[in-house]
Amino acid sequence: MNDKITTPQTIVLIITTLIGVWITTLPATLAEKSGPDSWLMVIIGGGISVLGAAIVTSTGRQFPEKTFIEYSVETLGVFGHLFNLGLIIYLVILTGMVVRIFGEVIKVFLLDRTPIEVIILTMLALCVYLTRHGIEPIARTAEVLLPILMLPVIIIYLMIILFNGDLSNFMPFLRLDFKEIIAGTKATVVSFLGFEVLLLFIPLMQNPHQSTYSSFVAILMVSILYLFVVVTVIAVLGIVETSLLIWPGISVLRMTETAGTVFPRMDVVILSLWSIAGFTTISPMLFASAFGISRILKAREFKSFIVPLVPVAYMIAMFPKDVLEARKAVEAVSNMGLFYIFVVPLLILTAHWIRRRVLNR
Amino acid sequence: MLGFLKNLFKKKQPEKIYTRPLRINDRLSRNLEKNLETFKNIFKDCDDVIFKRFCFGPDGKSKGLLIFIDGLVEKERIHYGILEPLIYEINLKTFNNKKEFLGIDYIVDQGITAPEVKRTKEMRELVEAALSGETVLIIEGFNEGVIVGTRGWKSRNVEEPTSESAVRGPREGFVENLKTNTTLIRRRLRDNELKVKMYKVGTRTNTEVAVLYVEDLANPEVVKEVDNRIRKINKDAIQESGEIEQLIEDDWLSPFPQVRYTERPDVAVSSLMEGKIAIIVDTSPFVILVPMSFIGLLQTSEDYFERWYIASFIRLLRFTGIFISLMMPGLYVALIAFHPGMIPTPLALSIAATREGVPFTALVEALIMSFSIELLREAGLRLPAPIGQTVGMVGGIIVGEAAVRAGIVSPIMVIIVAFTAISSFATPNYSLAAGIRVLTFVVLGAAAFLGLYGIALVFMALVVHLVTLKSFGSHYLSPLVSARLIELLDTFIRAPLFMLKYRPGVSRPQEYKRQRNERRDNPPREESED
Amino acid sequence: MKGKVFILTVLIGASIFFHGCWNMMDLEKKTFIMMMGIDALPEGQQDKIKVTLTMPVPRQLVGAEGGGGPRPETPQQILQSTGNTVYGTIRQITNRLSRQLYFEHMTAIVIGEEAAKGGLDRFLDVFQRNKDFLRMAKLYICEGKAEDVLKMETEMEPLVVTYINQIVHFNSSRSLRAINYSIGKVITELHETNGNSLVMRIRPEKKEAVVAGSAVIKNWKLVGWLSDRETRGILWMLKEINRISVETSIELQTPQKGLVVLDLVNFTNKTKAKIQDGMPVFYINMRGEARIVEKEERIIKKEENLERYEKPIEQAITKEINNALQKVQDEYRVDVVNFGEHLRKYHPDYWETVKEKWDLMFPHVKVVLNVDVKIRRQGIFK
């Protein structure tokens, strides 16, 4: 396990980890919660995520050679073990939920008569194939796949917004009360979840001190993309319609005809490309889970933990009985994610600081 | 998953790295007759071996023996290089100066006029030399033999390469003679840093293999790795560089070729100039270049000889071609059987009309047609050229037309398959095209299983495979996964030559910069005439 | 370990693969439904609605276009059934069909007059809930029965759907007599205004159809029609014309004598609302260009003063808009010109106070029009 990732690779890896299944649902959640000011929520949410990333990475940088698993125990003692366990459980559940939502979208829009189990299992199998190679191939795969994913998406959405968008859908401007801002921001921050893998990945970087910088750049990029998608969807569909749809990001593709192209309807293409986004989200999470477990058990290799994780993730994915329940479960899990981003690192930092002072005396 | 298969077939490391089959322990004797006896014993029943005894020196007192193989040597050279000087001139000289009689040093240094001379006491070496076309000279009274380079046999002339013809570029191609091939390269690269290392590979064939590299460019690690891998080869016979390729490549499970072969000296030289390593195998006109990237396989020498617009356009065309040949039948099945909504309505209706009455599903139809076109290609390949063309015509046009008329396949399928085949031919590297053709069936299967999602899965799996694949320690997908963005200038497009200031990183050269000039000079201004 | 996993994967993969492919079905085994018509059945019958589908017969369709043989009788086939819900009725049709119904090529939905009067909401749900139905399909409301449109035998195009969709395509951008609303757009509009919108009007005749004018939907129900001139009056005010390059002809009574026909191009509008005495007043500024295409006057002038037509054409447009406004404000009393939406966007505080009673207020809203037309060209004749 000598492979380490460079700073640009880290940026790409975080970007692809963040861009995942949420991009399809984010406009609906935002339109429902914050109406015409959704775009602002994306910016605020991005800012808060940057803050979270700063907390996570600056904690990690205190221990550049260690993962969360080790330094939590070092600073918090027994509680550290608890937090470690919680983190792994959280990561596995998140993996399962992402897979489930991914499977739902593919099933609904592409393969309505194929059992969702097949979709989920094929995807997990592919992720296992990648994650067994370790972190560096994951990052390199992300490097190759990111442009393949992003270029068509951006071009097609750009065409849609240019020909069908109506920016007056974002009026009235700034008419939110505090509660709505909180709700909307939380919805965005949840869709930025995924960078907490940095809790584990910092020692895998060639230059751990650039972790804060990488996460900043990555979150900035993702914010821009989210902003673009949210603006496109709401500009085309309007607030009311967006909030009524379950996957507005995809429905918007089916509403408009990209005129003048060979294939007038690009939604199927975008969906198949979007499975790349799912793949590059699930793989790092699966890797993080396996890697975390291997660190907890002080095992030499992480590889043997990947395959046993698949049935677990699969079971979790199949647990919610319908897609609404899955989304509720995701919201519940995401609270845990927020806890691990904003609370636990601060606890560790405080404990670390106190310990140092005590030791100095 | 694939690692399992690897383990299954992994052999034990040979204990002795380089074993020779000639178990000759005899040593040369000082007695010529005894030596002759030994050699006759070694070359028992080898009727193409000629033993020539002759006498020379004052009064013909000294006796000599020549051993060579009929047909492998140029007899002229034996005559003018060995026999004539020994028999006539030494005789004369000894009359003039009787002090020193014929020591073997004297014979080698003054007697033999042939330029390549080597002395050895090893019987084994003498036998090997004789087998590879040298002449062995043994003299009465010495337990040391002399190997004289007299190689010369009938071989093909340097001709235009058939598998890599170019519109613009040199028309010389490599031939089956190793020495000619190294000459072709040396003639283009007059640099003392160009090193030629010789190996003998093949425990029985003793094929000569030359490894060429530019020492201050090529990465020493790669050179060492090549050296290691070639030494590890323990096969009895090596006849083609293709065999060497398979024995030294990184991942034998991969459908992608990890080395590039070429018939063109100019390609070999430009690769050497990028810090790559060329492996030339005697008896093979194909030279192997390592380390190679996926992108490198899609480049031709003409890319650099043409102007950059044309070269860039052709490169983009090739990438499209490889994509089409990989995806087209799969996409057809996915669209027809899974997502007909994606096809424009009029097209969908006309496809439906032509497919009515076709007894097979789109998948079976695609399988039949793809399979038969592979069959046609194979059939045409092995036949003499005129008949091969006829087979192509008969198969492609008549059978295709008849199949459509008979309602066995739909016309659109014929179009798809023909288009796929054409795209596959547009791939410059034959092994890559062949690998892609195999993958076409994988894509087809995935498309039949999960539609476009299946294709996306296969595509991602391919990306993962390519990303983890290495060629002699370099990333196979090199410019796409390394951080050296400047290389993208020479990847999908080919930027103007003056912009290509760096060598590609796939060979990890010792010196990246290849040209210094920042900009082209402006053309001289015309003098005004007043 | 590795070996077992590998073999297991191969086995599972193979069993899945050979088990069959769930979604796989070749397209010739599907029928591409091109068009759907929904009619209400008279009261008292067991079933409430009647659904008509048209399905092209691909072989005959392509034969008609490609081969030189005689044109086949019917390039399309009609499927009908009655039932209570749209999808339920469609399912009934499959009882008599040898192929699978496939809706992803359906680009026109026609709703009959009676059905629309009973309320659109009960039909539209199926089109937004199922991904099979395209949101870009066009929605028409038919004068009379929808099935008449579907059964029409057109001579210009082999398929009715191509015929009527092409009419809309040109009519909406070249003469501005029809609004080009897809079902997705209508649904969006209905959701935003809680049930008010315009829908394309279609009137079937024996061998051709007239697609012009619009149907007015109020509170999800059809309340009346707007003629093609009135529709154009509304369209001037809608934002839609900003996006498509509009071109339309207008006949003009000149001060001298005789008519002048002008083509109007590059029309843009800007709407502003001001609140005066608790009531909104809308100021609509329009700009556009025109060119003369026909002139009845016999006087041939060497130097034509084009400006003298500008005033009359501005007046003509104003009049057309006012007529249309009068119709929707006084007769139908329904806000289909998106004034409410404008208030919601640009005067949100005010909108909060009037939102509930907007339907009552709309008929009394004042509109101030300011039309500015520049005549740029007069053709190639003086």
Ordered list of secondary-structure elements with their pairings:
The complex is a heterotrimer of chains A (361), B (530) and C (382).
Chain A: H1 7-18, H2 22-34, H3 38-62, H4 68-76, H5 78-109, H6 116-131, H7 135-164, H8 178-191, H9 198-201, H10 211-237, H11 239-244, H12 248-255, H13 267-296, H14 306-318, H15 323-360
Chain B: H1 2-9, H2 32-42, E1 49-56, E2 62-69, H3 75-96, H4 104-111, E3 117-120, H5 123-131, E4 135-139, E5 145-148, H6 178-188, E6 194-201, E7 207-214, H7 220-232, H8 241-248, E8 260-262, H9 265-273, E9 277-281, E10 287-290, H10 294-297, H11 302-305, H12 308-338, H13 345-355, H14 362-382, H15 385-405, H16 411-425, H17 430-468, E11 470-471, E12 474-475, H18 478-481
Antiparallel strand pairs in B: 1-2, 2-4, 3-5, 4-5, 6-7, 7-9, 8-10, 9-10, 11-12
Helix pairs in contact in B: 6-9, 12-14, 12-16, 12-17, 14-15, 14-16, 14-17
Chain C: H1 2-19, E1 30-32, E2 35-40, E3 49-56, H2 58-66, E4 76-83, H3 86-93, E5 100-102, E6 108-111, H4 113-117, H5 121-129, E7 138-142, H6 146-151, H7 160-175, H8 183-193, E8 197-204, E9 209-218, E10 221-226, H9 228-237, H10 240-243, E11 247-253, E12 259-276, E13 279-295, H11 310-332, H12 339-346, H13 348-354, H14 358-361, E14 366-377
Parallel strand pairs in C: 1-5, 2-6, 6-7, 7-8, 13-14
Antiparallel strand pairs in C: 2-3, 3-4, 8-9, 9-10, 11-12, 12-13
Helix pairs in contact in C: 9-11, 12-13
What does the model show?
The complex is a heterotrimer of chains A (361), B (530) and C (382). By secondary structure, chain A is mainly α. Chain A has 15 helices and no strands. The longest helix of chain A is centred in the C-terminal third of the chain and has 38 residues, at 323-360. Chain A is globular, with a radius of gyration of 20 Å. Chain B has 530 residues and is of the alpha+beta class. In chain B, 47% of the residues lie in helices and 12% in strands. In chain B, the strands form 3 sheets. In chain B, strands 1-2-4-5-3 form a 5-stranded antiparallel sheet, with helices on both faces. In chain B, a hairpin with a 5-residue loop joins strand 6 (194-201) and strand 7 (207-214). Chain C folds into 2 domains: 27-65 and 72-226; 228-382, GMP Synthetase, Chain A, domain 3 (2-Layer Sandwich), CATH 3.30.300. Helices cover 36% and strands 30% of the residues of chain C. In chain C, strand 11 (247-253) and strand 12 form a beta hairpin. In chain C, helix 9 (228-237) crosses helix 11 (310-332). In chain C, 40% of the residues are buried. Chains A and C meet through helix 11 and helix 12 of A and helix 1, helix 8 and helix 12 of C.
